[in-house]
Every structure is written in structure tokens, then in C-alpha cells.
Amino acid sequence: MKPETVALSMLALPILLVPVGLSQELQPKPPDSSKMEAKASPAIAWSEMQRPQPLSSATQTFTGTVVKLGDKYVLRTTDNATYQFDDPNKVKRFEAKLAQVRGETDATGKVIQIQNVEVWPADP
Description:
The chain is 25% helix and 32% strand.
């Protein structure tokens, strides 16, 4: 190979490698994993002056038997889960009956804030 060709090749090599080096520097950095975990956590609505409170849940429908336990009424579902009621007076007349309850659960997921109660299956 001629010395001029070698010298030209040596000068051209850095010029060709600069775009490769720059493209690697311009690659986006992977997201910070701590920020990813924060996005995956349950939604919390709060300010620095308040204690964190989960956002209210969506309205759900629960089906089970209304049972009196002590001085409280609970809904016992077919899978033996039990839910208390925010207002026992609304379910008192459904005691020992199969009922469908529509409402939202509180932050614990164990107390139903009643919107509607009816005997199940509904009478035609």
C-alpha cells in the first residue's frame, strides 16, 4: 500500500468514528427505577399537610346473604368473604336473605358504603 493511502486512511478513520461515538451519547437513558416504582404504586391523593388516603374505589356489586353478627350486619358472600355496612339500617330488613348490594368499599376494602340493596334474584 502506498504511504499516501495509509496516511489518508489514518485521517479518515477518526472522521468516520465521530458519528458513531456521538450517536451512542445521544441514546436516551433508561428510566430511573425508583420513578417507575412510584408510578406502579396505588393512587394516593394527599398533600404534605394530610395523611395519605387511597382514592375512592369504583362502584361494585356484591351478592351474598345478609347476616347479623352481634349488633352489626354483614354480607357473607358465597366464597365466605364478609363485608360490613356503613349504615346497618339500610340492610336490617334483608337479614337472612340473599341480597345484591351496590356500593363502594372504604380504604380497608371491608366496609361497603351502600348505594342500593335489593333481594337477589330480583323479583320479576
